[in-house]
Design brief:
Blueprint lengths: L4 H10 L10 H7 L9 H17 L8 H10 L27
């Protein structure tokens, strides 16, 4: 979890779970397979998001894995950015003139 270990430990502690370091993705995954904790994954996810938001607001680093960054880049990209100009639809095309993307 490259550089997010402290954030993960803080989120777990907030919900009353105190694992022994080192924190690994496998440890977190295995921990939430345990019957005592499997119903707390959503609560953990919210606490992790809150911890990341707090750290970001405080100027602390938050590591975003490459595959997640690529997903966000795709989801938040402006249509046509990666296409050659001649392949782009006109900016003000009528909806009726544009084929659906799927």
């Amino acid at each position: 979890m490259e550089s997010n270990e402290e954030a993960i430990l803080a989120a777990l502690a907030t919900i009353g779970i105190h694992p022994a370091p080192p924190v690994t993705a496998q440890m977190v995954d295995d921990g939430f397979r345990d019957d005592r904790y499997k119903k707390r994954k959503g609560e953990f996810a919210l606490e992790v998001a809150g911890e990341f938001a707090k750290r970001h607001a405080d100027g602390q680093p938050v590591h975003v894995p490459a595959h997640i960054q690529e997903l966000f880049d795709f989801l938040y990209s402006v249509p046509g950015d990666a296409e050659p100009a001649e392949d782009r639809a006109p900016e003000h095309a009528d909806a009726a003139d544009v084929d659906p993307p799927f």
